Amino acid sequence: MNAIVIEHVPVAELPSAWRARLVQSPGAHVTVRIEQEATQTTVPNEEFVTDDPLFGMWRDREDMADVAAYVRHIRAPRFDRNGTRNEP
Questions:
Q1: pTM (global) more than 0.70
Q2: Among 9, 18, 21, 51, who pairs with 14 as Cys (CB 3.0-4.6 Å)?
Q3: Confidence check: pLDDT of 85 > 80
Q4: Are 22 and 31 contacting, i.e. CB atoms less than 8 angstroms apart?
Q5: CA dihedral over 60, 62, 66, 68, signed as positive or negative
Q6: Does residue 67 lie within any of the structural domains?
């Protein structure tokens, strides 16, 4: 991890947002340490686990076996451009 340390910085020279968070007097000196934030890593082989009872409640529906086709069907318009009704 990379870090930058600046020692004996007068509080008056700090950015105003930083000064507002300090309780030291403006004449005090502080040490500023700036560290790189750790990146979040995900474990690719970790199995997804949930205890939500509704998760997967439709996995056994045969009309949704081909999910892409099912979604195309429900997104299809009810009527054609000429005004005739599409079959359900």
A1: no
A2: 18
A3: yes
A4: no
A5: negative
A6: no
